[in-house]
Amino acid sequence: MGRAFLGLGSNLGGKETFLRDAVASFDDLQAVSGLYETDPVGGPDQDSYLNIVIELDTNRGARELLEHAQMLEKRANRKREIRWGPRTLDVDVLWVDGEQVNDPDLIVPHPRMGERAFVMIPLGELDPIFLESWDNPNEGEVRRLRDW
Predict the structure, then answer these.
(1) Where residue 86 falls among pLDDT bands split at 50, 70, 90?
(2) What are 15-72's pLDDT values in tens digits?
(3) Which is the catalytic residue, given 20, 57, 63, 90?
(4) Which listed residue (63, 87, 105, 147) is catalytic?
(5) How far is 1 from 43, CA to CA, in rounded Å?
(6) How far apart are CA 117 and CA 113, in angstroms?
(7) What is the number of other CB atoms lying within 10 angstroms of the CB of residue 133?
């Protein structure tokens, strides 16, 4: 078993319901960060996001986690029409213990996670070591709403 971290976000429809349903699908769940409301970064004008990071203790590799993430997004009727546009559910594979992947459809560790406070702040809540060398770019406001 190894640790993996995934970032989840939603800013359309029943945002928290989409996140809760996704979290419930992981039988290898270890921990969930607090629930954060965040300003959108990039893309068109859109509503704020709800974001969390989850920690898994898993036998699954990055590719299997990506497949599960894509299944969850499809189940939530995610539409990929505008880059960085609004979405019912976004699930990103952030980090998988001992794995580095550099494929066209998957890069692990996630190449932009250090640029995103909405990822790093909840990730650091689960494991502060990720914040040790993080240089916060201060993009968009990140507000902790409550414990998950």
Answers:
(1) confident
(2) 999 999 999 999 999 999 999 999 887 766 788 999 999 999 999 999 999 999 999 9
(3) 90
(4) 87
(5) 37
(6) 8
(7) 7
Q: How far is CA 23 from CA 10, 41, 42, 43, 53, in A?
A: 13, 23, 26, 26, 10
Domains in the chain (CATH in brackets) are 2-146 (3.30.70.560)
Residue with tokens 């996670």: 113
The answer, yes or no, to whether residue 148 has pLDDT greater than 70, is yes
Task: Read off the pTM.
Answer: 0.93
Catalytic residue among 57, 92, 143, 144: 92
Identify the active-site residue in 78, 80, 83, 143. Answer: 78
- Distance separating alpha carbons of residues 7 and 90, to the nearest angstrom: 8
**What is the total residue count of the chain?**
148
Q: Is 92 a catalytic residue?
A: yes
* 8 Å CB contact between 58 and 2: yes
- SS3 of 32-85: the string is ECCEEEECCCCCCCCCCEEEEEEEEEECCCHHHHHHHHHHHHHHCCCCCCCCCC
Residue 83 falls in the annotated catalytic set: no
Annotated active-site residue 78? The verdict is: yes
